Amino acid sequence: MQRLDLKQLLSQKLSPQQIQFIKLLQIPTAELETRIKEEMEVNPALEEDEPDDTEELDRDDDSDDDSDDPDASLDNDENTLDEDFEDRSGSDQETADDLPEPEIQPKDDSPTDTETAPDNTDLDLSDYLNDDEIAGYKMQGDGPGEEEERDTPLADTSGSLLDSLLDQLHFASLDERQEAIGQQLIGSIDGDGYIRRDLSAIANDLAFSQNLEVSVPEIEAVLRVVQQFDPPGIAARDLPECLLLQLERRPQDENTVNAERILTDTFEEFSKKHYPRIQQKLDLEDDELKEAINVILKLNPKPGGSGPSGLGKTQYLMPDFILTNDNGVFNLTLNARNAPELRVSPAYTEMFRTYDKAAKKDQKMKEAVTFVKQKLDSAKWFIDAIRQRQNTLLRTMNAIVELQTEFFIEGDEGKLRPMILKDIALRISMDISTVSRVANSKSIQTEFGIYPLKYFFSEGIATDSGEDASSREVKSILKELIGKESKERPLSDDKLEKMLNARGYNIARRTVAKYREQLNIPVARLRKEL
Which residues fall within 8 angstroms of residue 57, CB to CB, at 6 or more apart? Predict the structure, then answer.
């Protein structure tokens, strides 16, 4: 039996503007520039503000009519705009709120925001959307211009290790079949320079992808050729092979021979630093063992990262904030690329002047202006979101600087105070999630280096004095204690716990072990040296 029920619900939904702000807030500076360029390509009503162009427009307005105020004229246009479209139907308003982003076509553009729109294939918008008016910022969005390259020089990242290996393969004396095998091997190299894929699987790949039947011995023969390429140790199948390939290129003196014996016969003992067992098996004196191990420690365990730019693209860290100390007065600014000057295109504002002065306002013209109105609204929302992002970033960073003033004055990690996301959220009267979005992917440039914002957040450790100490401070002291220890008899976690307790830090052994692992410091046995 069918039944009709009436329910009343209260729900909250984010508006398109709020969603846009959240997405812009969490991206770093490097990605923000790309995001702005994408928005400018999609929305022709949005462009970068160029001071020279603005001055020229102001001079043109003054020369056209001295009695008219340009600002007042612009305000009148906005008022006319609101009056013309305040009576639009609900479906039109809903479409404008959804921020549609259709392709902009100067001619034969059919509207999508009205259900009963007439056929307007004859509508010519060339007076409003000609390429001359928007070519300037389109060129800026397509790629870096001369001025952009001058302002932000970047290192040359055109070459990669993969390209270098392929070039060396072409110079090797290989036939067509062997070169195909070599290309497959090079393509199977991981980011750290190893080939971890089984050679039989590579043979299957060649059979399926290139219809080339090869045997494992054939692949091994070509692999030996690839392993002679630069950098040394490339295309190894495991760590011992990688180190042995590098030792083969060294002068074959006594130390090198002993190092090869250690890697070949006692690699497991070497990885666990069981030096007495190595001496017993290889009959080495203390000095001989020490010299051989020093040779091994100078080798590169990850040759894939030693090429021109590795197997991947080099990443450059671009700080979001710049903090300077002027005689005790902090000056916090956003990165210039993080604060772009955007504006609504004057060409599109001029369209409404034309529409307002037109004697005949037919349906086709209204539909064209409705489309432009949507783009103008989208541009204004985007500019507001950028400004709101800048304000939120500065408020958050200012609060961090206020809480960590001692660190920013001296740069001493021990001066960091315990600070969590909630502390900043309460100071700036914002939600913790907003502070988290700011801190996750942003960094600040100081006089002591570039730090990620997450670096300044740490939990508190109770002390004998009753005050909480930052976990960063405890880690700094832990690192200092391990750095001063005797390498012949390293300190265990139990001893480190007692030494920290003696300094007034109430910390357990498991916490010491956790902090040690976070600092990438091995256990005492693996820190032992001869």
Answer: 346
Terminal-to-terminal C-alpha distance of the chain: 87
Residue 433 region by backbone torsions, left for phi larger than 0, else alpha for psi between -120 and 50, else beta: alpha
Which has the closest alpha carbon to 382: 36, 30, 29?
A: 36
Report the amino acid identity of residue 218.
E
Residue type, 384: D
Euclidean distance between CA atoms 184 and 143, whole angstroms? 34
The whole-angstrom separation of Cα 170 and Cα 173 is: 8
pLDDT digits (tens, 9 = 90+) for 206-252: 888 888 888 889 999 999 999 999 889 999 999 999 999 999 988 88
| φ, ψ of residue 268 in degrees (nearest 5) | -65, -45
CB contact at 8 A, 349 and 77: yes
Place of tokens 């105070």: 417
Task: Specify whether the CB–CB gap between 353 and 77 falls below 8 A.
Answer: yes
* 509: exposed, middle or buried (Cβ count in 10 Å: 0-12, 13-18, 19+): middle
Cβ-based neighbour number of residue 44 at 10 Å: 21
Instruction: Of 1-10, 124-133, 162-171, give the lowest mean pLDDT range.
Output: 124-133
- C-alpha 29, offset from chain centre: 8
Rounded Cα–Cα distance for residues 219 and 170 (Å): 17
The predicted-structure confidence for 414-468, as pLDDT tens digits, reads as follows 788 888 888 899 999 988 888 888 888 888 899 888 888 888 888 777 776 666 7
Contacts 24+ apart (CB under 8 A), 411-414: 411/446, 411/447, 411/448, 413/472, 413/473, 413/475, 413/476, 414/473, 414/476, 414/477
DSSP codes of every residue in 485-523: S-TTSPPPHHHHHHHHHHTTB---HHHHHHHHHHTT---
Cis peptide before 251 (omega within 30 of 0): no
State how beta strands 443-446 and 449-452 pair: antiparallel
b vs e for 245-275, b when ≥16 Cβ sit within 10 Å of the residue's Cβ?
A: bbbeeeeeeebbebbbebbeebbebbeebbb
